[in-house]
Amino acid sequence: MREKRNIALTRRGVVICGIAYASLPQLSVADDIEPEDYGRLARVINGHSIVLKSGLRVRLANIFAPELKTDFSAEAKNAILTLLNSRPLGLFYQGAKRDRYDRALAQLFTLRPDGTPDQWVQAEMVRMGYARVRSYAGTAWRIDELLKLEAQARDAQRGLWQSADYSIRSPAPNILAQDVDSFQIVEGLVISSAQIRGQTYLNFGSNYKTDFTVSIARKHKKTFEKAGFDLANMEGLRLRVRGWVELYNGPVIWLDHPQAIEQLNSALS
User: Fold this and answer.
1) CB count, 10 Å around CB of 229?
2) Which of 147, 133, 142, 137 is nearest to 216 (CA)?
3) pLDDT at 140
4) What is the rounded CA–CA span in Å between residue 61 and residue 56?
5) Domain ranges (residues) in the chain
6) CA nearest to 202, candidates 224, 183, 181
7) Where is the TNase-like domain (predicted)?
């Protein structure tokens, strides 16, 4: 039964990718970006990873597309192939140039005939609904634009946003525990915050031993404070947090940069 469903998704992906790409106006790059590396596509691994003809493996910074054999993985792969195939490409780095797997961690652009940037590939993938925003410390370039595009795609139920597999998660621990070892977007109200030996814990339930928690290490505290977060007084804030869900006294996301948090309200009085 599962095999039949995957075949259907692959067929659907070809059609949806074509419709989405044709019906949405293309984005242009407004900034004067000068790429640092150039190349052409050799193959697509998934919606956020490619290999250039030079052999350089590229991980597109700040997005997370469906991985192989998951819902909408074929559609995402088809979408990025349509964007990049036969186009000259430019890589722009902001922050770390390589990830832990030695892949180029880059903003990717298609190029015009004169070599100047044309389309920002990350923005196109997010806008069409074939990737979610996933920022990294030091690489959150134009992240606010990506978040707006993601919200528009989610509201319009484009691409992966049609699937419950990628819906915004509740912090309810019994539900979130099923998402351990995966990237998720979690939205909820901070019930309490605690500072213990310099570590910050944002608790989304009354029992810190079982409920969902966001944890921020002492060494990252100043980065969050510079971004306007008062970590000692977060109670009552509704937050949308994105990151890798782990299990440590209940589900937890460890954060090292403030761009992974969206504040959705003001503190309750």
Assistant:
1) 20
2) 137
3) 83
4) 15
5) 2-164, 168-263
6) 224
7) 35-163
Q: Which fold has domain 2-164?
A: OB fold (Dihydrolipoamide Acetyltransferase, E2P) (2.40.50)
- In the predicted model, what is the mean pLDDT of the chain? 89
Going by the DSSP 8-state scheme, the letter that residue 99 receives in this structure is: -
User: Tokens at residue 61, please?
Assistant: 């910074």
Catalytic residues: 59, 67, 103
Above 50 in pLDDT, residue 121?
yes
CATH of domain 168-263: 2.40.50.140
Using pLDDT thresholds of 50, 70 and 90, give the confidence band for residue 16. very low
Q: CA–CA separation, 231 vs 228, rounded Å?
A: 9
Equal CATH topology for 2-164 and 168-263: yes
Confidence grade of residue 103 (pLDDT, cut at 50, 70, 90): very high
Q: Do 205 and 191 touch, CB atoms closer than 8 A?
A: yes
